[in-house]
Amino acid sequence: MYKGTTITGEADQCSKNDIAIAQGQVGMQPDGTQTFSVEITNTCSTGCSIANMHLICDFSSGIFINTKIFKKLARNDRVVNNGEPLAAGSALSFRYAAASQFPLSVSSTLC
Fold first, then answer.
1. Separation CA 98–CA 91 (nearest Å)
2. What totals of helices (H) and strands (E) does the chain contain, helices first?
3. Helix/strand/coil for 81
4. Among 41, 42, 46, 81, whose CB has the most other CB atoms within 10 angstroms?
């Protein structure tokens, strides 16, 4: 699980520490490339929705990743859920294919 900083709203108190990222290998592609599953969960205990979630990571996938879930904006900057709020307790997931697992960490959020 990776944790990171926050931009906080006045009404809700949350931080990038309220985002849990879990990933692991789930299979192999026909060409032998590993497939990894990623789950991003809003663990905010006060019920806050978290929007404008950005992750630090730089990789390319051998399989399609839905850009509404995980979109590259720039090198080392990916936006999650198209910037839309992720409710407390909710999770998003996607898979990617690469030679090795890539580190993912939260760079910023908005409550």
1. 23
2. 0, 7
3. helix
4. 42
What confidence tens digit (pLDDT) does each residue in 65-88 have? 999 999 999 999 999 999 999 999
22 contact partners, CB below 8 Å, separation of at least 6: 1, 38, 39, 41
Length of the chain in terms of residues written: 111
CA atoms within 13 A on the CB side of 37: 7
Please say whether the beta carbons of 107 and 77 come within 8 A: yes
What's the angle, vertex CA 20, arms to CA 108 and CA 88, rounded to 5?
85
Query: Helix, strand or coil for residue 21?
Result: strand
The amino acid at residue 88 is A
Q: What is the pLDDT of residues 28-55, one digit of tens each?
A: 999 999 999 999 999 999 999 999 999 9
